[in-house]
Amino acid sequence: xxxxxxxxLLRERAxxxxxxxxxxxxxxxxxxxxxxxxxxxxxxxxxxCRSTLAVNQQQLHGAADDxxxxxxxxxxxxxxxxxxxxxxxxx
Length: 91
Hints:
Blueprint: H1 3-25, H2 46-86
C-alpha cells in the first residue's frame, strides 16, 4: 500500500470513529436523566438510581471523547505520512 492509500485509510478510520462517537452521544440513553426524578423510580433508593445513571452517562461521554481522540491521532498520522511521502521518506 502506498503512502497516499495509507493516509486515506487512516482518515477513513478517523471519520468512522467520529461517527461512532456521535452515535453514542445521540443514543436515547443519553437523555434519560431529563426524566429521572423521584417519581420515576420504583424502589427505596431513587437517588442511587439517578447516581448510577449519571455515572453510566459519564462513562459513555468518556468513551465518545476517547474515540474522538483516536480519530485526531489518526488524522495526525495521515498528515505525517503525506509530508514524509513528499520528501520520499515514507516507508
